[in-house]
Amino acid sequence: MDALILSCSTGGGHNAAGAAIRDELEARGHHVTMMDPYELVSHKLAEEIGNVYVKMVQRSPKLFGVVYALGGMVRRVPGKSPVYYANIAVAKKLKEYLDENPVDVILMPHLYPAELITYLKRQGDKLPLTVFVATDYVCIPFTEETDCDYYVVPGERQMRDFTRWRIPKEKLLPYGIPVGRAFDEPVTKQEARLRLGLDVDENKKYILLTGGSIGAGDIHKNIRILLNYMKKNNVDGKLIVVCGNNERLYRQLEKEYVNTGSWKYKLKSYARKRGKASHMWDEENRVILLKKTRQMALYMRACDIFISKPGGLSSTEAAVAQVPYIHIRPIPGCETHNMRFFTRNGMSIGVRHPRLQLASAVGKLSKEDQITKMKQHQQEGIPQNARKGLCDWLEERVRE
Questions:
Q1: 3-class DSSP assignment, residue 24
Q2: CA distance linking residue 158 with residue 134, whole number of Å
Q3: Closest C-alpha among 7, 3, 1, 2 to residue 35
Q4: Average per-residue pLDDT for the chain
């Protein structure tokens, strides 16, 4: 099988889902090309499309919420959306590429490539099997105006939302959101900690905090709340913070919690020398700071609690890893739906106001019965083998 995966860098979840499918197909001996279709026009265009989204979400998530809400209103108006028309020039470039590089199937874990494919179909171009892969627990705006052969949806419970937007039920494949092969490996908490160089002592607690691949959300405030909780409750542990691609956030946190040249560090070093540091809460030794990591599956399994914004892919990863999970304030839009689905089904605790709710949520997940109940809901509520199920179906469908 020759497969083409088309994705874009507006958030890491789309690319991560695409990479999960690519790796599975390649492991089965198939040939796969994964690309950003906007690279066919120029690298600068592909980069700009990703950067516009990332900067908006990092710096003004409320503005993104407004844009998403406008999309929700526009989708109710007859006719094609601005997204469809904006992609026509790129669609023509994609047609040239497909003429020179024929494939058996095109997979799209992003809306924009699905719009490209739809335009080509409307022009009467002959295309291979086309499959859209949803990466959120909702039918996002303008999915309904695309014309793919099949749509992979997060699960049975999301099918109704897609049919509500006039996508035929016979086109829906409820295999789930594909996650990477690393999440298949049955690794214990102690083994994961050993591989990462963390303390394997069961009494040592680790809390993992991320803002997704783009480091979005008020990470500064959440760190302060979590450190205060650990101090107040005498928690023997550390906070692991993953900043993703947000270099600015990493530099700020490094200066605050890691940089040995900071005035706080010098003050504490002086106190230690004077023998007056026994009562001091040593924040520098409580925070492990990371940029992006390829070992997220291990970090999830090594931690006692995972805290992140409700991205579709990261939420699915947490459910597959069956880790105690807290959703912090979502980016308005599809993440709001993701959090609602997870919290209503007992697969996470939702926190919209960290100052008032985060410490309480952490406290709840320090109780073994709450953890056991959440893991059970995660196992029952989320397809655990989405990647394999989809690739099994692809092999059979292409053979036919």
A1: helix
A2: 10
A3: 7
A4: 86
Rounded to whole angstroms, how far apart are CA atoms 301 and 198? 12
Sign of CA dihedral 106, 107, 109, 111: positive
**Strand 325-327 vs strand 349-350: parallel, antiparallel, or unpaired?**
parallel
| DSSP 8-state secondary structure symbol assigned to residue 138 | S
Range with lowest mean pLDDT among 18-27, 67-76, 162-171: 67-76
pTM, two decimal places: 0.86
CB 96 within 8 A of CB 125: no
Say whether both 125 and 204 belong to one domain.
Answer: no
Q: Are residues 148 and 197 in the same domain?
A: no
Please write the tens of the pLDDT for every residue from 67-83.
555 565 556 656 666 67
Q: 6 is in which domain, residue-wise?
A: 2-177+384-399
Answer yes or no: do 254 and 318 share one domain.
yes
Q: List CB contacts of 330: < 8 A, sequence separation 6 or more.
A: 309, 310, 336, 338, 339
- In whole angstroms, what is the distance from residue 140 CA to residue 72 CA? 8
Q: Residue 12: which of 182, 246, 237, 341 has the closest Cα?
A: 246
Our count of domains for the chain comes to: 2
Q: How far is CA 239 from CA 190, 198, 207, 216, 311, in A?
A: 17, 12, 5, 17, 21
Does residue 298 contact residue 188 with C-beta atoms inside 8 Å?
no
Distances (CA, A) of 53 to 8, 45, 63, 300, 311: 11, 13, 11, 26, 14
* Per-residue pLDDT tens digits for 112-142: 999 999 999 999 999 999 999 999 999 998 8
Q: How many CB atoms lie within 10 A of CB 64?
A: 19
What does the block give as tokens for 2? 């020759």
Locus of tokens 């989809």: 390
Answer yes or no: are the C-beta atoms of 364 and 370 closer than 8 Å. yes
* pLDDT (mean) for 287-303: 93
Tell which phi-psi region holds residue 244, choosing left (phi > 0), alpha (psi between -120 and 50) or beta: left
Tell me: do 32 and 133 sit in the same domain.
Answer: yes
3-state secondary structure of 4: strand
